[in-house]
Every structure is written in C-alpha cells, then in structure tokens.
Design brief:
The chain is an alpha+beta fold and 175 residues long. It has one domain: 3-Layer(aba) Sandwich (Aminopeptidase). It is 34% helix and 30% strand. The chain has 6 helices and 8 strands. The protein has an 8-stranded mixed β-sheet with strand order 1-2-3-4-5-6-8-7, with helices on both faces.
Length: 175
C-alpha cells in the first residue's frame, strides 16, 4: 500500500506515543514554547530551513506549513511532547519525496539534549512511516559536525549512504 492509498484513511492528524513522549500535531498553544526553544543558534545552525533569530512570525508560518503539509499528504510534522512535564521538547517529521520514500527530520530543545528523546521519537515515527503511511524507505541528512544526530540515526538502523561536503546522507529500508 502506498502513500496515496492511505491518504483517505488519514482524516485526522495522528498521535503517537512512547513510554516518555507524545508525538502530536503542533497547536496554536505551542507557539510560545516553540519560539522559546527554537530561537537557539546552535539548533538553527543544524537545521536547513530554520532561521535565527526565530520569532512568533516564524512560528505562525510554521504552524500553517505543518497544517498544509498534512492536508496535502506531503508531510507529517509532529511536536514532541515530554509526558512528565507536558511540554514541547522538539519536532520530528516525515516529508514525502516520491510516494515511496520520505525524508526524516528532527530537532530537540538544547535543554533536553542527551536524554534520548530523539532516538525514542525516531523509533516510533519510523514505524508510523513504514506501517501506517506505507513508505518503503526513509532517508535523513545531518552535518558531519553533528555526531549526536548521527548516533540517533545509527541507533535506529540507518546506514550511511553518502557524504557530500559537510552533509552525510543516511537511509533505512523497510524490513
């Protein structure tokens, strides 16, 4: 089953859960927290489409981008919520590339680095992408200067595919 077969099934934005996290739709109530955690040069330097400084205008545009992507079936962008504190700690997304392949992207609030949230969120979104959406492969890119992100990808079964300049590309095929 491919992504177009599932589009009719996916009427409502899904909510995914792990032991410590909830992955859900980005909401209007998240915008202040999004601005607070995304307005970080160390994060923006690692994310292709994130600006710094990051403000409420950017966050509002992000909310529209996320909503349009879901409605079009072109991307699934989740807010990562820490259950214990009921607060947003980052984002994770799948961006459809050709109906069979999606690009995985994620970022975590600097105050939550090293807690395993990215690995935990990746594990559940990989399952969602393969089982629910029907992708046959995923890929992700990260900077050669971001070993933590590489560790997350490797821990979740991704394999190094290529290196161009400052970027490494990793891929994972459905088993």
């Amino acid at each position: 089953m491919g992504i177009n077969d599932n589009k009719a099934i996916m009427e409502q934005f899904p909510t995914l859960e792990t032991q410590r996290l909830v992955l859900r739709k980005l909401k209007l109530e998240d915008l202040d927290r999004l601005v607070f955690i995304a307005n970080n040069k160390r994060i923006a330097d690692q994310i292709t489409n994130m600006v710094h400084p990051y403000n409420h205008v950017h966050a509002s545009m992000r909310l529209g981008y996320v909503s349009r992507g879901f409605n079009e079936g072109s991307r699934y962008c989740f807010a990562i919520i820490e259950k214990d504190r009921d607060r947003m700690v980052g984002e994770i997304s799948l961006h459809n590339r050709d109906g069979r392949t999606a690009e995985l992207g994620y970022w975590i609030d600097e105050g939550s680095w090293g807690l395993g949230f990215a690995s935990e969120a990746c594990k559940v979104i990989i399952g969602f992408g393969f089982s629910e959406i029907g992708y046959s492969s995923l890929f992700a890119t990260c900077s050669i200067h971001n070993p933590a992100s590489e560790k997350v990808l490797l821990k979740n079964g991704f394999q190094l595919e290529s290196e161009q300049g400052q970027l490494r590309t990793y891929s994972l095929d459905k088993q």
